[in-house]
Structure formats: C-alpha cells, structure tokens
Design brief:
The structure holds two protein chains of two kinds. Chain A is mainly alpha-helical. Helices cover 77% and strands 0% of the residues of chain A. Chain A contains 13 helices and no strands. Chain B has one domain: Rossmann fold (3-Layer(aba) Sandwich). The chains are: A mainly alpha, B alpha/beta. Chains A and B meet through α9, α10 and α13 of A and β6 of B.
Amino acid sequence: MKRIFLICLTFAFGLGILEILGRNGAWNTELFPLPSEILSFLGRTLTDGHAHAGKATGEKNPSPILYAVESVTDSTLLAAITVTLKRLAFGYFIGFALGIPLGLITARFRFMRETLGLVALGMQGLPSVCWVPLALIWFGASESAILFVVVMGTLWSLMLATEHGVRTVPPLYSRAARTMGSKGLHLWTRVLIPASLPSVISGMKQGWAFAWRSLMAAEIYVTILSGYGLGWLLHNGRETLDMAQVIGVMLVIVAIGLLADRIIFAPAENWLRARWGLDKA
Amino acid sequence: MPANVERELQNVPPSQLALTNVTKLFTSQHGEPVLALDNISLTVKEAEFVCLVGPSGCGKSTILNLVAGLEQQTEGRVLLDGEEITGPGRDRMVMFQEAALFPWLNVLDNVLFGLKLKPGLTNAEREQVALFYLQLVGLEKFVHANVHELSGGMRQRVALARSLAPNPRILLMDEPFSALDTMTRESLYRDLQRIFTQRSKTILFVTHNIREAVCLGDRVVLLSPHPGRIREIFEVKLPRPRDINSPELAELSSEITAALKQYLKKDA
C-alpha cells in the first residue's frame, strides 16, 4: 500500500511540475496542453454522457455520427474503447485459433514447415500496416478489413512460436512419455503441447503486441462507419487540432497495453515461473 | 486400503529377458555405417539385477533402448518372457540419466503420468498407488512440490517412483545416478537395494561406474567399445545390503577394472 502511495505521489509530483511550468509559459500549450486539460478531457469523455452532456460544446448534438465528428465529448472515449477492445479480442481470438493449430501442423510435418512455415516467416517480417491497402480493396472500408489486418498481425508470430515451442521440446520428454505408454494424440496433448507452453506464451504476448499495433494502424487509416475506435479518435484529434484529445487518447492506448500485460500476461508468466523455475521461463 | 489398490500394489512376477546374437548398425552423421552392437547374447533371469558396464561407445545404452522398445536391433532377437519386443510397453519402465520429469506437472502428477495410462483403476485409486510409491522413495512430504524445487537426488527419487508406479515387471535404468554427488548417490544405493528386495523386479542397470555395478548387481556384464561386445561376466556373491565402501566390494571392482584395462589394451 505504502509503495503504491509513493508511486502515485511521484507521478502527481511530476504532473504538478509540468502544470506549473506550462501555466508560466514554458512552452506553447496549444501544442502540448497542460496536464489539467488532458485530465479534464479524459474525465469528460470517460464518464457517463448524460451527466456531463454539453459541457464541451454547450449544446447536445442529436446525430451520433456528426456528434462524434464535430465534438468529442461525453462518453465518446468510453464507447471508442469498447469498440476497439471488441475488435482486438475478436481478431486476436481468430489469430490464436488459426495460429496454434497451424504451428502444430508445421512442427509435425516437415513438408508443411518447408512451405507454410516459410510463408509464416516471411509474413511475420512484413509490418502489418502493409496489409491495410490490400484489406481495403478486398473488404472495403468495413469491420472485416480491420479484422483482417489484426489477424494478419497476430497469426504468424503465434504460429512460429508454437512451432518453435514444439520443436525445441527436449527429446527426453517424449522418450520418457513413450516408455510409459503415451503415443499419438495423448503424446501431443499431454507432453508436446504442455512442454512448449513457455514458448507459446511468449508467442501469445508477441502476437498481442502485433495485434494491438496493427489494430491502431488500421483504425487510423480505415475510417469506417460501423464504430469509432481509439485510432479514429486519435486521428480526429489531429483533424480538429485538439491536442488534449490526441495526448489523452495516446495515454489511454498506453494504459490498455499496460493493463493487458498486468492482467493477462503477468499472471501467466508468474505461473510459468512458479512451475518451471526461473531458468526456463 | 481398498481391495483394488491392494491388488495393484502386489508384486507382479518379474520378467525374464533373452538377447540372442543381437547386432545394431547405426548410420553416422557422415553417412557411414557404425557397428554399435556386435553379436550380443545375454540372458537375464527373473528378479535378477544385472549391471552393464563399459566405457562410452560400448553400446550399453543401446541395449537398454532395444529392451525399452525405443530402438530396433538390426539383427538377432530380443525376447521378453519369450515374446519379441515390438515397442514400448507398461511391463518395462525406464529411468534415465536426467530425471526426465515433466516441469509442467508437480511431483504427484509426474508419478501419476504412467498410472493414468493404466486401465482398470479409478483416479482416486491411482492417487493412492502414487502416494504409496512416493512414500517408498521417502518423498511423502514433497507430493505437491514443483520439480524445479527439488534437488537432483530428490528428482531421481521421483523418477524412480514414477517408473515403479505402473508396477512394471522389469526396470531399465540408464546411468540414473551418474549426475549426483557421492553422498546422495550412496543413500540412493541403499534405497534401491531395499526396493529391489521388497518389490522383486528384474533390473537391467547401465553404468560406467564399476564400483556402482558391483554394489548393486547380481551379475556385472563387462562390455568394450567399437564395436560394442560383451567381454566377460562377473558374478557378485556378496550379501545384501551392500556398502559401496566395503573392502570386499573394492576388491572385486578393482579386479573388473583390471580386466577392462586388459581388453582395451588388446583392442588398441
């Protein structure tokens, strides 16, 4: 508790200094807004819309699209977070559901490794933004285009990590398992897959990072009407020259990344470390 | 204890093993054929403890792998209780040089791994069987420990419990104590001898340590390398339990060492 308090105090102190310096004209606050302005943007847009409606513009705009374009206010940010996280979860899930089995297949069959595995290796090196033009032509400015880009960002690294994990399982494990009567599917599900967990989990972490980056890229480039995500909000902040919005949204993106690490990956890695020991995990 | 568990824990009749004119050819990395085993014939009686000793390259581990069903001989026959070995089987359990325990499972689940593949028991019964063997190797306090938390000696004890748990008729041990320190090893010699007497198993034990072989085996089979051949078989008539530091044991093992040196000199 004491540590958390100290950490919060340090951040508050830093922000306070920035606020004082900014207010005394140390820089142009049009370009780099005061911490208080960013916080007020976050507070305004993260909370429930009705309570604060009209604070920013002084009037309520009835059309949701115009409303979002003209002024970002009320619970817009909350809605954008929901839209973005839904896309991320869905795209990541598809990438996961395809990547793990494909990784197992390339690990198992040499021919698949030499063909599909090579494709995966090449595609992993391709920055996922590069998929955006293709996605736009194939799917139009739609939800599918964004999903496609996210899946392409996730799939290859998960596939390669799974393959690597399975192929680096010490042969001794499968020998020992075979002498105890394990073979075929049992050998895969009870030995090879669990033994490759450290690699698969680090692949999942990398896959998530790629998915997150590619989603932001897609949201900035693909303006679609099926829902405004964080990337669009960032883009919109630039168009309306609202720097508090730009920086505020960036902070939210950073926070989501941190939270995902703390909530999803840190527990998985801690579990690995407890089971496998420090050296292997 | 339920009747089912009691029946499972009873000693099974130990196996008898017969290798006749076994030859094993490998292909080296350069594509040349290498003769690993040259015309090996050996019989192991029921409940006999046989140690295979020899320098590296003598094919002692290959013999073990053939019996385990992990490899196939090029020529000759390997018969277990009169039947040809075609693959791994529950009647033969293997203990490896490194513990080969699964790090994603705790101690109990490691011991349960082979047991779960054995039909005719409920999971609760399997757990009782596993606990029995963990107690036999003196690890009842570490049932829920993770593998990496154990010392090397404790890991080998878990591996021993794991290989005993499915109640095999023959135990194949591939230099299981060679990575351990002297004190740990000596306590494992005591325990293995106790378990061998109690559980009545046939044991085929591979080692490069001649004293260890004399300490444990009823017979010590001396092999020489390139190609792997049986040179001489020594009977050990010392009473059990044997102490590896006893003078009688030292006498016999120096005799075997001298013999090995003679053979190596002759080959060179």
